[in-house]
Amino acid sequence: MQSEAHDGRVADAPRGNWVDHFAPPRLRPFLRMARLDRPIGYWLLFWPCAFSWAMAGLARPGVALDYWHLALFFIGAIAMRGAGCVFNDIVDRNIDTRVARTRSRPIPSGQVGVPQALAFLVLLGLIGLAVLLQFNSFTIWLGIASLALIAIYPFMKRITWWPQLFLGFAFSWGALIGWAAAFGSVDLPALLLYAGSIAWVIGYDTIYALQDREDDALIGVKSTARLFGNRARAGVAVFYVLALLLWLWAAFSAGSGVVFLASSLAAAVLLGWQVATLDPANPANCLARFKANSWVGLALTLAFWFERLI
Asked: How far apart are CA 187 and CA 178, in angstroms?
């Protein structure tokens, strides 16, 4: 830990990431605070946008897919995931100093002060707003509404055993945004996709929270990982199955058929592998299975895309 604190690296960031090796030294604490040294977070925020975009394309067979929208979703996911992390770190700075995995983060380690973090938060928010303004007015207001979910999430671990549910509300919002960008409305397929994505987030963030169960118990932080206890694997399985069922319902309500059903088996296999091989007592095992969810998002997006293509 001393060497990590000395060079400013964050304990749970992957070794050899581009921020530690290539970013200018003055920018590194801010890029680490936005989690740009850990891309899994913005990928998980992006994928609901992507498979909603692809499902909307499936429902509009005579209209070309707008790949510019997909690029905007990716940029927005990076900016807003970073903004959410900065806000979370400001709120949790006193808790983070008491958890081994988080005490080396820029704010609790003293590399970045709260005023600097707030200024960076505003900058990321403005980037997100610039992206959002490229869409129709309905989508703009829908995106602004998500700020309420981002604002309340960091406090949920203090008052409920289900903070993963509130993370699901926020991280799955893209499932509504991708559809709204195409149609200027939120319809049944998008709502079902959103509900399935919430279940998915609860499952994978429970796996992520298993890494911190001991520290969380000592400081009184709540999570589904603690709530499920020895039944964590079963709990994750229930939410993964629910996610798959809701995604299938969304897909068929949007006009998909057997091509999507066959293609989506890849996502089902990936989720099943996570549950079957999960070792709740092994943090490295939990982190690897959590990160595998980026492949789940890609698989589901491609399943929609293949259905439209064929």
From this structure: 12
Tokens, residue 261:
């059903």
User: What pLDDT, in 10s, does the model give residues 50-87?
Assistant: 999 999 998 888 788 899 999 999 999 999 999 999 99
Contact 182, 254 (CB under 8 A): no
Q: Would the pLDDT of 1 be above 60?
A: no
H/E stretch holding 280: none
Q: What is the pLDDT of residues 276-309, one digit of tens each?
A: 999 999 999 999 999 999 999 999 999 999 998 8
pLDDT of residue 12 exceeding 50, the answer is yes
Degrees, nearest 5: CA angle 160-221-124: 85
Would you say 100 and 215 are in contact if contact means Cβ atoms under 8 Å apart?
yes
User: How far apart are the C-alpha atoms of 131 and 286, rounded to whole Å?
Assistant: 33
Share of the chain above pLDDT 90, in %: 70
User: CATH number, domain at 113?
Assistant: 1.10.357
Instruction: Read off the CATH number of the domain in which 212 is found.
Output: 1.20.120.1780
Report H helices in the chain. 2-7, 18-22, 28-33, 40-59, 67-91, 93-96, 114-132, 137-159, 163-171, 174-183, 188-209, 213-219, 224-228, 232-253, 258-263, 265-277, 283-291, 293-309
Structure tokens, 129:
């707003």
The boundaries of the domain holding residue 28 are 1-47+57-134
**How many angstroms separate the Cα of 197 from the Cα of each of 89, 100, 106, 122, 129?**
24, 30, 30, 28, 23
Query: What distance in Å separates the CA atoms of residue 223 and residue 211, rounded to the nearest whole number?
Result: 11
CB-CB contact of 132 with 139 (8 Å) = yes
Q: How many domains does the chain have?
A: 2
Residue 187: what residue type?
D
